[in-house]
Amino acid sequence: MLKLLLYTHDPEVQQHYLKALPEEGAMAVVVSDFKEFFKESNTIPCSGVLLDVVSSIRASQFDREVIQELLEVYPSLRLRLDPATGEIRTLMTGAGPGQNISIRKFVETYCSNFLPRCLRMCQRKPIHCNVIYSFHDQLASEVVQRSVTMDMSIGGCFLMTTEALEVGERLWVRIIELMDNSPIMVEVRWCREWGQKMMVPGVGLHFSVISDRQREEIRTLLDGD
Q1: 145-152 and 88-92 as β-strands: parallel, antiparallel, unpaired?
Q2: Does the chain have fewer CB atoms within 10 Å around its N or its C terminus?
Q3: Residues 123-134: pLDDT tens digits?
Q4: Domain residues of the chain, as ranges?
Q5: Which residues pair with 201 in a beta bridge?
Q6: DSSP secondary structure string for all residues of the chain
């Protein structure tokens, strides 16, 4: 049975989303508070995340941090219910502007091919690595930008930048401090624009294509003091 995480605060809205799931082969683990959820169970293997937009806006700081980490790991679909019509509007990370995909299609196309991973907090640390990044995989010197990571997990990192990037865009990054600092393909999962509160601007990145050696080096950084 395929399992997905559904994050929503509203029980009535929740029912609309659950009814939109495929009738067979999929179920949703409903979460409204991650602190409470992790107290009871944190090893549920999931294949995707369904995220109610209104609930995510109203989420606690802790829940927002967890959501950001989940977006770096799992296929994810943002949902918004129109209470007047009952229509569910969707936006899939990386699907491109203007694309609306049904929950059923999301599950069948993306989640069914995703190897289930246990739902747990990724270890995230404020690690500052020097990075160059580009829209081109060769990272030629004339087309790269220089930046620094503000934090890092095994699944991705937060990269400081004032550049206007879109969710779903693919970049190539070179993390200078890694022994194997060959380009890593990443995908933008969320953005924080310059001037948005008193916070560092940048993008949350998911490591899409990364070597085993690079992942182990990052794991060593996370395990260090």
Answers
A1: unpaired
A2: C
A3: 678 999 999 999
A4: 2-118, 130-223
A5: none
A6: -EEEEEE-S-HHHHHHHHHTS-SSSEEEEEES-HHHHHHH----EES-EEEEHHHHHT--HHHHHHHHHHHTTS-EEEEEE-TTT--EEEEETTS-TT----HHHHIIIIITTSPPEE--PPP-B----EEEEESSTT--GGG-EEEEEEEE-SSEEEEE--S---TT-EEEEEETTSSS---EEEEEEEEE-TTSSSS--EEEEEEEE--HHHHHHHHHHHH--
pTM across the whole model = 0.61
Residue 85 token pair: 């019509």
> Confidence class of residue 96 from pLDDT cuts 50, 70 and 90?
very low
For Cα atoms 57, 62, 68, give the angle at the middle one, nearest 5 degrees: 65
Q: How confident is the model at residue 206 (pLDDT cuts 50, 70, 90)?
A: confident
Q: What is the pLDDT of residue 219?
A: 87
pLDDT at res. 14? 95
For residues 199 and 192, the answer to whether their CB atoms sit within 8 Å is yes
Evaluate whether the domain defined by 130-223 bears CATH number 3.30.160.20: no
26's tokens: 């999929």
Could you tell me which CATH class the domain 2-118 is placed in?
alpha beta
Both tokens assigned to 60: 């606690």
Mean pLDDT of the chain: 87
CB-CB neighbours of 58 under 10 Å: 12
